[in-house]
Specification:
Blueprint: H1 2-7, H2 15-25, E1 29-30, H3 31-41, H4 50-62, E2 66-72, E3 78-84, H5 86-110
Antiparallel strand pairs: 1-3, 2-3
Helix pairs in contact: 2-3, 2-5
Length: about 110
């Protein structure tokens, strides 16, 4: 079990929100699909557990950055589909800018000139 945690990459606070917003920029998706998109888009490095994903989705919905509707999935099951709102698009742009600034700062520390 200790090895499992050694190989796990912890996301910085707020990073999951950014990943969810970015995933929804490609179109509406249910929660499980969002998790799968993050996992496959990261080449299986980022695995978002339901215990982290769904509270983040609920928080983003309360903030007005995403909205949801109940629909029937391709497997004929009822699921909540999330979509990006106009406010969410603005937030995504802001978060992407902040992420690039943070990543640049960390790169400068790791590999100083």
């Amino acid at each position: 079990m200790a090895r499992h945690y050694q190989n796990r990459i912890e996301l910085l606070q707020g990073t999951l929100d950014l990943l969810i917003l970015r995933t929804l920029q490609w179109g509406p998706q249910h929660g499980h699909g969002i998790g799968l998109a993050i996992r496959s888009g990261s080449a299986e490095v980022l695995k978002v557990e339901a215990g982290s994903l769904y509270p983040a989705l609920h928080r983003l919905e309360r903030q007005g950055w995403i909205a949801s509707t109940w629909k029937i999935t391709e497997n004929q099951q009822r699921a909540k589909y999330y979509r990006l709102t106009a406010a969410g698009k603005r937030q995504l742009a802001s978060e992407r800018s902040r992420w690039r600034t943070l990543a640049g700062a960390i790169a400068r520390i790791l590999d100083p000139a």
